[in-house]
Amino acid sequence: MDKTAGAEPVAGRARGTDGLDGVELRHLRAFMAVAEERSFTYAADRLRVGQPALTKSVRALEETLARRLLDRTTRRVELTEDGRRLYAELAPLLPRLAAALRSPGGQPVLRLGFTSLLPAACAELTAEFEAATGAGVRLVRRDTPLAGLDTGESDIVVLRGDDPPEADVRTRVLLHEPRVAAVGRLGANGALARRRVLDWAELADHPLVVNTVTGSTRPELWPADRRPRLACTADNFDEWLEAVAAGHGVGVAPQEVAARHTHPGIRFVRLKNAPPVTVRLALPHRGAHPLAERFFGMGGG
Question: Which residues contact 125 (CB under 8 A, 6 or more apart)?
Answer without folding.
Answer: 174, 295, 298, 299
